[in-house]
Amino acid sequence: MKKTMKLVSACLLGIKCRWDGESNKNSKVMKFLDNEILIPVCPEQLGGLPTPRPRQEIKGGTGKDVLEKKAKVLNENGEDVTEAFIKGAEETLKIARFLGADEFIGTSHSPSCSCFEIKDGTFSVRVIKGRGVTAELLKQNGIKIKSEDE
Asked: What is the torsion angle, in degrees rounded to the nearest 10, for the CA atoms of residue 91, residue 49, residue 59 and residue 67?
């Protein structure tokens, strides 16, 4: 049987690329390695942000709003990192197209990778419905998106 190729938030595979320099290693995602080819990506690093880095959240909307220039991504110091998020999303899309990946597994609540819920932009524990910047761009371009919980 031919293995399919999927992009995965790199932190879910144990790569220490989260904002705090840690990972979100996920045993459910790791089980895919038996039957799938998983390509780790960290859109925030691809956009030029360092690891570790200050926490970031979308202010004023969702990933869709960021791509439409209606919302921004700010870090906890108030710095605008929107362009790095857009660049990282575009680079991730290039990788997906180059490799023929048709699916992306993203980490929950991430302003880049989340597929269904993101933090609300107040740097609290509150979440709202919506996708991160990268998950939104991939979905808009026909790539199936899933969270690590699916």
From this structure: -20
**Are the beta carbons of 61 and 67 closer than 8 angstroms?**
no
One-character DSSP codes across 99-142: HT--EEEE-TB-TTT-SSEEE-SSSSS-EEE---HHHHHHHHTT
Strands 103-106 vs 4-9: parallel, antiparallel or unpaired: parallel
Q: Is the dihedral of CA 61, 76, 27, 143 positive or negative?
A: positive
Q: How far apart are CA 26 and CA 60, in angstroms?
A: 30
Measured CA to CA, the distance from residue 111 to residue 135 in angstroms comes to 9
Q: Name residue 130's amino acid.
A: G
Q: pLDDT of 48-83, one tens digit each?
A: 999 999 999 999 999 999 999 999 999 999 999 999
Task: Give the per-residue pLDDT at 35.
Answer: 83
Contact 8, 104 (CB under 8 A): yes
CA distance 61 to 66: 7
